[in-house]
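Morning - magnesium ion inputs below, output right after.
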Amino acid sequence: MDSKLALPVGTTLDRFIMRNQEDFPFATGELSQLLRDLALAAKIVNREVNHSGLIGISGAYGSQNIQGEDQQKLDVIANIRFIRALRNGGEVCTIISEEDDEMIQTGNCQGKYIVAMDPLDGSSNIDVNVSIGTIFSIYRRQSGLGEDGLLSDCLQPGEQQVAAGYIIYGPCTMLVYTTGNGVNGFTYEPSLGEFFLSHQDIRIPEEGYIYSCNEGNYRYFDEGTRAYLDYCRKEALTARYTGSLVGDFHRNLLKGGIYLYPATEKAPQGKLRLLYECNALAFIAEQAGGTATNGQTRVLEIQPTNLHQRLPFITGSKNMIAKAQAIMQG
Ligand code: AHM
Ligand code: MG
């Protein structure tokens, strides 16, 4: 008999979440349920993403989000799907989303959790069939139960995250997440409708050879950033950049590398958002043995002051980032 036939089918995400919950004797199961709600929304969005070209939902929606960027139809759909799943789940009192100007109150005033999300990141890549992703952060509310969540519940520094993750819709769909106890990756098996554990305890190599940066902005970067990019070219590192943060981050996580989106003359605060994109990826990077900084400060220590705050973002392999910082600081 072919030995592959005898392989077990593997650990489903549900079982994995349940098993981890058993390690915490007083866990009530609410966070587990919340993770399952996110996984359900991910399956639905995965279906929409896969069919988008066929059912007329790729392309622009005709409106702009708070950042003044054109919303794609799938951005809007993904936002609705995730909000609906979290509202129905009941564990979350307040959601903040890259696609919404204000906090979204779910009406679940007994919900202990806050979710920050970018429902569909890399949206400029939707129409051209390049990987896109969902990014999420989960925080415990600080305010008392029984009321809507407060702005202060949403403006917690990243080190307060209780869980964070992303879903990458690529050649296959994966969900990668951490609850502060290492990073695990699950691959979606569409014929069974399940995520299966495929990448256990992911560790980012300390050294790497890939750098991911939009070098088209070279002339708008400061001198330190230009010096670092000159170094990458001199050392003939491998340049890999798709314009989808989740895809670029995921590659570097598995292979070793550095992702940087520095401040530019056009975007002096940087482009990426602290609450919807950077905190989650910083938490995952650190949990996998990597680092994340805005150039001066560890990302997870930054105290947010507004919901849509941006920052320069550098993340990836520990030694590569140390080298980058040394060069950037001259
Ligand atoms: P989005 O949230 O509107 O999709 O923007 C975020 C994206 C990231 O996925 C990506 O790394 C970056 O913006 C690409 O920006 P640029 O096209 O300036 O290189
Ligand atoms: Mg985004």
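Note: The two ends are 62 Å apart (CA to CA).

O.
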